[in-house]
Amino acid sequence: MKGKMLFVFFIIIAVLIALVGRLAYIQLKSGDRYARIILNQQEYSSKTIPFRRGDIVDRKGTVLATSTDVYNVILDCSVLTSREQYLEPTIAAMVQCFGVDETELRAYVSENPKKRYYKVMDKLPYEEIAQFEDLQNDEKNGKNIKGVWFEKEYIREHPYDTLASTLLGFTTSGNVGIGGLEDYYNETLNGVDGKEYGYVNDDSNYEIKVKEAADGNTLVSTIDANLQSITENKIAEFNNAMKDGQNEGAKNIGVIMMDPNTGEVLAMATNRTYSLQNPWNLDTLCYLSADESTKAIHQAERIELKKYYDTDTIDAMTEEAWNAALSEHYTEDQLSNIRNTAQLNQVWNNFCISSTYEPGSTAKPFTVATGLDSGTLTGNETYYCDGGETISGHHISCIKRAGHGVETIQQSLENSCNDALMQMSYAIGPANFSRYQHIFNFGLKTNIDLPGEARTDSLIYPEDQLSTINLATNSFGQSYNVTMVQMITGYCSLINGGKYYQPHMVSKITDANGNTVQNIEPTLIKETISEETSATIRQYLQGVIVNGSGKKAKVDGYSMGGKTGTAQKLPRSARKYLVSFIGSVPADNPQVAIYVVVDEANSEDQAHSYYAQSIAREILKEALPYLGIYPDEELTGVNEGVGITGEGIQVEQTPESMDSEVPTEAPQSAEGEPSGQ
Q1: Domain edge (last residue) among 172, 194, 221
Q2: Residue 266 lies in a domain
Q3: In the structure, what pLDDT confidence band is assigned to residue 171 with cuts at 50, 70 and 90?
Q4: Do both 363 and 334 map to the same domain?
Q5: pLDDT digits (tens, 9 = 90+) for 188-212
Q6: Which of 26, 377, 397, 469 could cross-link with 388 by S-S, CB 3.0 to 4.6 Å?
Q7: Same domain, 358 and 431
Q8: What is the four-CA torsion angle of 293, 299, 304, 306, rounded to 10 degrees?
Q9: What's the pLDDT at 268?
Q10: Boundaries of domain holding 56
């Protein structure tokens, strides 16, 4: 019996020796490999390192949009509960530094002891986490403060809030640009997130690997913050002077300032500004008329219904059926969001590039340039204005029903004479007129680097549809549509020697360290007219300011050129007008161009271009000295004491004298029928 026990004992000893030997062999030969396998099976945390979205600055480096770092307070409950001594000091520090609810925090930790990521607070500036970090790093009191870390991210900030809001746009979550430069250059402004993660190295040690984020690039815009501020302030001044308890000062006001020799936009503004810090604020809906709100909501609801019904079904719906269909697919909260967003889109819309209208008499210099450059006009012609032309049974009136009498081409522009322009159109002919409309880029996009530029290709007549009456009305800016950016870009080519530059908003792109990534040079697209024709047009436009309809735009001490416009909108019985002024300084060597549009001024007497002229004059009075453009004429006191709305001006023409009969062949797509000055 004793021998058997010894035998079993030795067998066990032998097995143990063999097992130890085998383990030693594995450790020596494959220990590292198995260690890595075990370590790789463990769960290691990783975190994203966010990129910083690039800034947007003005032409002089003033920051208009930037990204500021903020911190989310993250609690790792698994660390906090891993040792008993961590709990109390950590919770006490969080209550002291962040003011969190202690009861709620304890309850969460108790219910989720293994939770590794719990966002306690978000988007705190560094100043608000600094105290906690000091406690955490204190060798004596902070050794048991564990399980709290700070997740860095960025928020978009706009130091001047509403300044250039329609130009800049804003961002939503995920660094997605909405409108303006934020939208158009979204990929340029965005960078690439970095990553921090753990791995097992060749020595079987756990290490932290960091791949740094690549920050986004910065846009150096062409706009000047001071010029933009001057422009917006003058628009606001006009709006405040004209508005009443129910209506804004005008339905729309737009202003563009441009360098005519480069196509750089120096300022672009509308009356519909909004807070870039809070673009979803519904208070801005005050800009919209009841009709505009109703139309926007109806269009948005129709888009939603088209997801479920065909067009014929939607068209046949009664109001009751329409509302029932919406309620079937959406909650009231969802419908409210759809309707609010539809209206806010109208506020965020940039009138200067996204809205079309008939230009009125600001188009007349283009007609004259077409005639001169094509050789169908010599410049020596005279015309007899007897108050209008009768074409195909329609009498189309001049702004002066009694007639201007005999006029030269220059005088016809100074007087803004429809009759003379119509007579010019007969000589120019459909082929030349259509060809030069395309040369001046009407009907085509300018491709400015902003989102939402409106198409106008269907809003001008092709050559084969330019009947005598259509050609006649087109000659003075009626029956075709343009955008503001089309008009001022084409105008710049009229006055700069015939060079059509692509309008642009950004002059340079730099990286996060300020190094130049790309210089965006002025792009000469084409030549529209000859130097000789351009010089003649500049002379004519100066005459408009000195002797004609543009006197109210005159800035004392400066030579200027320009043209006025008053467009009557449909329905004509409503007597709604869009008035405008386009001009340049100095007259013979233009360094700056400006275009002002006032759409439906809040007045019973809307049909006066001096609304637009006065806004332009008041902007230029401050802008010209700032730009270093010095007076080149003697001071005469012209327009002294005349205010932003033109008060103090003796009205020389009544709205009735500016009406013209609407031809029945006007395009159905046209928003309104312009006439006269």
Answers
A1: 221
A2: no
A3: very high
A4: no
A5: 999 999 988 766 565 656 677 888 9
A6: 397
A7: yes
A8: 160
A9: 98
A10: 47-81+112-136+147-221
Q: pTM surpassing 0.85?
A: yes
Are residues 412 and 304 both part of a single domain? no
The pairing of beta strand 56-57 with beta strand 218-221 = parallel
Judge if 311 and 370 occupy the same domain: no
pLDDT at residue 6 greater than cutoff 70: no
Tell me the β-bridge partners of 209: 197
If you average pLDDT over residues 133-153, what whole number do you get? 88
Mean pLDDT across 491-511: 98
CA dist., res. 538 & res. 410, Å (int): 10
Cβ contact 502:461 at 8 Å: no
Q: Does 676 score more than 60 pLDDT?
A: no
Q: Which of 467, 383, 469 is nearest to 421 (CA)?
A: 383
Sequence letter at residue 449 = D
pLDDT for 201 equals: 60
DSSP conformational letter for 52 = P
Rg (C-alpha) for the chain, rounded Å, is: 35
In this structure, the answer to whether residues 314 and 383 fall within a common structural domain is no
Compute the distance between CA of residue 608 and CA of residue 578 in angstroms, rounded to an integer: 9
| Amino acid 142: pLDDT | 83
Q: What b-and-e string marks burial along 9-20, b requiring 16 or more CB atoms within 10 Å of the CB?
A: eeeeeeeeeeee
Burial (0-12, 13-18, 19+ Cβ within 10 Å), 42? exposed
Tally of domains in the chain: 3
**For residues 611 and 309, what is the distance between their CA atoms, to the nearest angstrom?**
47
Which of 339-377 are b and which e, b meaning 16 or more Cβ less than 10 Å from the residue's Cβ?
Answer: beebbbebbbbbbbbbbbbbbbbbbbbbbbbbbbbbebb
DSSP bridge pairs for 267: 257
Contact call for residues 424 and 402 (beta carbons, < 8 A): no
Q: What is the DSSP letter of 454?
A: P
Closest CA to 443 of 609, 180, 667, 672: 667
Contact predicate 211/199, CB 8 Å: no
Report, as an integer, the average pLDDT of 390-417. 94
Q: Which residues contact 543 (CB under 8 A, 6 or more apart)?
A: 410, 411, 413, 414
Residue of 295, 296, 274 lying closest to 283 (CA atoms)? 274
Which two structure tokens, joined as six digits, stand for 647?
């008060």
48 membership: H or E segment, kind and range:
strand 47-49
CA-to-CA distance for 291 and 251, rounded, in angstroms? 11
